[in-house]
């Protein structure tokens, strides 16, 4: 192990030289080392206090986390000062890949061109759009009354407002609106809590794991859905051979329309958020969510009464859930789903698990620019109005290295979810009945 052997217990020894092989062995929950820019840090204890959640660091324990660290942090100088207290030593034999170095050069170019800098006017206009839509819904009911067609109209207006609020909270959550973390956190709490009734910390816990290891089993919570659906080519076969699972997965492409989009936001997310906040004693997020419901019922109870307002709210969430589910899943679920591999670098991992939907004013607005899912995953803190600038450079890098850059129509991207469910369900059924 060379000069790094004295650092086995995580004690900081300046100027220690450590082999990459030794770093890779510190990959347990109670023994976590990560590598960033050639330097090794013991994050075993820090993981419990990590703002992005302990699991993200655990997912990269024993690995080179440089590209993930660079992608997630705007305040690198501040974070680096804190990391210095966790320093263990330097690694001199870091595995070098041509594509990894070329992507890092691409990121350097992106920074130099200013494409990572926030665009205040874009986000101001987007925020005002949401306020206008909510105000319009109240005004329509006040002026035109509560006929069935006006109720449906205002419900759809509020659905649009909530969907767009979902995209804007996503921007604040990724720190792509403000250069400083403080304002990003403040507005994320405001948009996801007071404007949507969800939890900022819950979103961080789920979403950053998804970005850190997308479509990787046991590491991406967005694909941990085996209690209802089996996805990909490998997991269904594993479940089938072991006779696991209690759903008729061979029909999952059909019951997806009953248990997927209709129930995700109205039922599942409500219970998960409440459970998360109470379990972690996150009283701030719970209070902001309660404030959202107080505001909603204050605005609409005069029109519908108590239970009528509850029905109106659930109807809005029902429509929004379809919008949210198709947009967020079309770019990931149909792609490769697998166990983690130490051979995957950041660039290849994101391209393998993501696809784009063709740009255009409607697709951009409808998806909150998540139709540029590849660019978003490569540069998660980039303001979304700049994705189109970097997309041609990403395509060129993919072409050079023979990596598929998937870019679909909106219809095909959504249809591929159903095709994937049908294929995966059949794989499970065949393996189960061998």
Strand order of the largest sheet: 1-5-4-3-2
The total count of helices amounts to 18
Strand element count:
7
Helix content: 55-70%
Largest sheet descriptor: 5 strands, mixed
Q: Beta fraction of the residues?
A: 5-15%
> Per the principal axes of the C-alpha atoms, what is the gross shape?
globular
Query: How would you classify the helix and strand content by structural class?
Result: mainly alpha
Q: Flag low-confidence runs.
A: 1-13
Q: What is the rounded Rg? A: 23 Å
- Helix and strand pattern: EHEEEHHHEHHHHHHHHHHEHHHEH
For the structure shown, list the relevant keywords.
single chain; mainly alpha; five-stranded mixed β-sheet; 7 strands; transmembrane
Present the secondary structure layout.
Blueprint: E1 17-18, H1 20-24, E2 27-28, E3 31-36, E4 39-42, H2 54-59, H3 66-72, H4 76-83, E5 87-91, H5 98-112, H6 120-144, H7 148-173, H8 181-194, H9 200-212, H10 235-241, H11 252-259, H12 264-279, H13 283-329, H14 346-353, E6 356-357, H15 361-367, H16 373-378, H17 387-401, E7 407-408, H18 410-432
Parallel strand pairs: 1-5, 6-7
Antiparallel strand pairs: 2-3, 3-4, 4-5
Helix pairs in contact: 5-17, 6-7, 7-8, 7-13, 8-13, 10-18, 11-18, 12-13
Main location: membrane
Transmembrane segments: 121-142, 255-276, 288-313
Protein name: Cytochrome b5 heme-binding domain-containing protein
Structural overview:
This protein is mainly alpha-helical. Helix content is 59%, strand content 5%. It is built from 18 helices and seven strands. The protein has helices at 20-24, 54-59, 66-72, 76-83, 98-112, 120-144, 148-173, 181-194, 200-212, 235-241, 252-259, 264-279, 283-329, 346-353, 361-367, 373-378, 387-401, 410-432, and strands at 17-18, 27-28, 31-36, 39-42, 87-91, 356-357, 407-408. Helix 7 (148-173) packs across helix 13 and helix 12 runs antiparallel to helix 13. The protein is globular and about 75 Å long. The model is unreliable at 1-13 (pLDDT under 50).
